[in-house]
Amino acid sequence: MVTPPQCCRSTATEAMERRPNLAVQGRKKRRRKPRVCKNKEEAETQRMTHIAVERNRRKQMNEHLAVLRSLMPESYVQRGDQASIVGGAIEFVKELEHLLQTLEAEKFRVLQQVTPAAAANEETTNTNSKMLSSPPFAQFLMQPQYTWSQIPNKYTSKTKASIADIEVTLIETHANLRILLRKGPTQLSKLVAGFQSLFLSILHLNVTTLDPFVLYSISAKVDEGCQLSSVDDIARAVHHMIRIIEQDATALC
């Protein structure tokens, strides 16, 4: 029996080892490439869908802005762009709020002047008595962080009884405050200075008086460097500031 040379055996072995690799490579080459046309069609469909959605969103926004603009006097809208309309609406609402507070104060004064003889029927007398028993502007402070003149409600603990009614709402860096307290000399100027020291920039301020009370409605921006990050922090700082103002006023008397 003739034994094949060593070199022949090596060549045959290498050829057998290469066959699986060649088969794998063959299978890899047979893979079909994705259809470029289909991908382009899908991308174009998605693009057109996004355009349609954005067009519909802008249409709805313009309709809402048109309705909002129709509810305001022309003097509150300087231009027709979105920022002007929204800004004008905010100012208009604040003016309406101030008007409502003024009318409520006037209504309270009138009820105080009504004599028992003028209130002929029992229903009118009971209604007037209920309104007079409630402190003025009570309906404007629904969930105060500090309570002074109002009857404590479920949102306010007894430990928070204070020298002023203080209610704070906070949305991102915009804070709205309502402060009800007794009027005092140089009170407003000290409040403004106090807000500046707290890094709270006053954007809008309404003052409604009903002797001996005064209601401050304040819109403020939380500036950089302000250490007050919650409604409780702001209410606590404002309460402390008012207490100092009251103490200074008492010392001068």
Automatic annotation (TrEMBL):
Pfam families documented for this protein: HLH
Localization, UniProt: Nucleus
Biased composition (Basic residues): 26-37
GO BP annotations listed: guard cell differentiation; positive regulation of DNA-templated transcription
GO molecular function: DNA binding; DNA-binding transcription factor activity; protein dimerization activity
Region (Disordered): 1-44
Keywords of the record: DNA-binding, Nucleus, Transcription, Transcription regulation
Listed InterPro entries: bHLH_dom, FAMA/SPEECHLESS/MUTE-like, HLH_DNA-bd_sf
Record carries keyword Nucleus: yes
Domain of life: Eukaryota
GO cellular component: nucleus
Keyword Transcription: yes
Main location: nucleus
Residue ranges annotated for the BHLH domain, each copy included: 45-96
Record's protein name: BHLH domain-containing protein
Taxonomic classification: Eukaryota, Viridiplantae, Streptophyta, Embryophyta, Tracheophyta
